[in-house]
Design goal:
8% of the residues lie in helices and 43% in strands. The chain is mainly β and 107 residues long. The chain has a five-stranded antiparallel β-sheet with strand order 2-6-3-4-5, with no helix packed on it. It has a three-stranded antiparallel β-sheet with strand order 1-7-8, with no helix packed on it.
C-alpha cells in the first residue's frame, strides 16, 4: 500500500537493504491459483493438524503452514500469495523492525 512506500521514502530507506518477513501461517499456498509467486517445493513436514512447506524460487526462500489435509509433492510448482498487511520489514543495517503507519512499536 501507498503508506508503506511513503514510510520507506520518509525514513531514507530508498536504496538500502531491508529484510521482509512473514509468519508461515500468514502465507497462502495454492497448486491451482496461478496469481501468486511461482515457487518450487523443496521440502515439507507432515505434522498432523498442519503441514509445513518450504518453498524456493531464485534464492528466495519462504516457509508456509497449511492445513494437514494436503498432499504436497517435492519439486512441484506452487503459487504463494502474501498479504501486504501481514508483512514485517527490518533494517538490515540496524536489525531493527521498521514500524509501518498504524502499527504499534514493540517495547
Amino acid at each position: 500500500p501507498d503508506e508503506m512506500g511513503h514510510r520507506f521514502y520518509d525514513e531514507n530507506y530508498i536504496g538500502k537493504h531491508i529484510l521482509i518477513g512473514v509468519r508461515p501461517e500468514d502465507v497462502q499456498v495454492s497448486a491451482k491459483d496461478r496469481d501468486g509467486i511461482q515457487m518450487r517445493l523443496d521440502a515439507f513436514e507432515l505434522l498432523g493438524a498442519h503441514t509445513n512447506l518450504f518453498l524456493e524460487q531464485s534464492g528466495l526462500e519462504i516457509a508456509a503452514t497449511v492445513k494437514g489435509n494436503c498432499d504436497p509433492q517435492t519439486g512441484n510448482v506452487y503459487y504463494v500469495h502474501l498479504s501486504a498487511g501481514k508483512l514485517h520489514f527490518f533494517d538490515m543495517d540496524t536489525e531493527s523492525r521498521i514500524v509501518m503507519p498504524g502499527e504499534m512499536p514493540m517495547a
